[in-house]
Amino acid sequence: MIRFLTLFFALTFCVEAEQRPPNIVFIFIDDWAWNGTPIAFDEAMANSKMPVLQMPHLKRLAREGMKFRNAYASPQCSPSRVCVQTGQSSPRNGFTVFSNALGQDYFNVKKSRGLPVISCISDMTIDPDTVTIPEALKPLGYVSAHFGKWHMRGDPGDEGYIAHDGDTTNDPGNTVGRVARLPEDLTDPKLMFSVTQRSMDFIDAQAQAKRPFYLQISHYAMHEGRECLPATRAKYVKHPSVQAYYKRARRTADNINRKQDPAIWLGMAEDLDRCIGNVLAKLKKTGLADNTYVVVMSDNGYRHKELKLHPKLTQPMHAHKWWVWQGGIRVPMIVRGPGIQAGSTFEGNVVNYDLLPTFVDWAGGQPGKLKDIDGVSLAGYLRGKKPDEAFLKRHLYFHYPHNRTSMPHSAIVSGTDKVIHFYGHDDIPMLFDLAKDEAETTNLAAKQPQRHQALFNEMMRYLKAVNARIPKVNPDFDPKVYKQMEAYEKRLPHGPFKGRRPLTDDEKN
Fold this sequence. Notes:
Layout (H helix, E strand, L loop, with lengths): L1 H18 L3 E7 L26 H9 L1 E7 L4 H10 L3 H4 L23 E2 L14 H5 L5 E6 L14 E2 L27 H18 L3 E6 L11 H8 L2 H9 L13 H24 L6 E7 L27 H4 E2 L1 E4 L7 E8 L3 H8 L16 H4 L6 H4 L2 E6 L8 E6 L2 E6 L7 E4 L15 H17 L6 E2 L5 H5 L2 H6 L18
Parallel strand pairs: 1-6, 1-7, 2-10, 4-5, 4-6
Antiparallel strand pairs: 2-8, 2-9, 3-15, 7-9, 11-12, 12-13, 13-14
């Protein structure tokens, strides 16, 4: 009789769990390049991963779920976070940068003095009328929490999050300040472990309440201001590749600056992986693992010099954060959950603003009824549906109309075709075939003008349709003054070019 009752309650629990809507956990990583993980997002490219780095829990997620070869995001963290919350591209939502949000003026003249183009300002918060993830999921019975970095101004509670850390920026994650060495008593680097603990407490509470939930864990890692547990750093300090790096830099583990120390960056990633593992363990312990989607993604592309720890590897993509070159917008992405084939890879283009409609689809809603969004649901493709030509060649839009580390520019990606436009440089049209030239070394626009013009026209049509802010030529531009600016030297390697561009040092064999 006891055995019968035990079996009965076990079966009842399983049926109830299957009938409940799935939970969604989104682990959002800061400043993480497509090639910044130990997972090869292209098995044919040795430089699509970090060989020295150990992240067993992330690798487990990839084995048990689907990895995305061609995942895209925004070129900077704040715009990316708004795209995720709203399902809208940056040109549509108007939140294109964090630091240029200065009043209500359309153009940022002050920041553009002496430069070729007068850049635009940005929205400062999420539009109150825009539906965010928690607001879209609440009618479907979900409760939502956000822990960690917000960086969109405003109150997360106003967007529907019942538990959160407030209007956080990068600052809370820089726990040790501007010190050259890591403190020996550091226990919560980048607030990884405390953010994870609050997330696990939320999971426990929802498991007990038997409520479906959306949980966003927005880590401060891997943003600069490197921090890790001293014991994790000590592990990587001993690695032969790290020791060789110290020797080349004429430094030792005791006198190298924290900002230049690869052992800390590697340790930060491994500590992050431990936190990911803790969340996975909590889902298993609460019996929710089989009914929970876990998404891991980066907010923007980056350029990790740690790849050079392996002497034969070169950087796979051009430029870095703040640019819409591939190095700034291609990111790692992995999804595990119900119905997703273990160890699978998706080759089509996906983008951060696809997440909102995907989450609504998972929750049992109708993503097609979401208004004014640019993303599409990936739920069917995650279950194994083959993408059609319309999906594979759909248009993805990227817009960074600002003079900051980069230059005002926009891009459109359609399949493996990509057009980049630098405002104020209309005489240099740019077209790339990513299937043959993922590093964007060869500009095909001069040889294939019609192919370029078709995509360029579509990009400009879209930007106009969504009322995107467009920079204007600076009438007071002085080329002689510009060339004397520090900004000129920084921007030149990543600006527009005709024909072929010279490779940077970390791209050369």
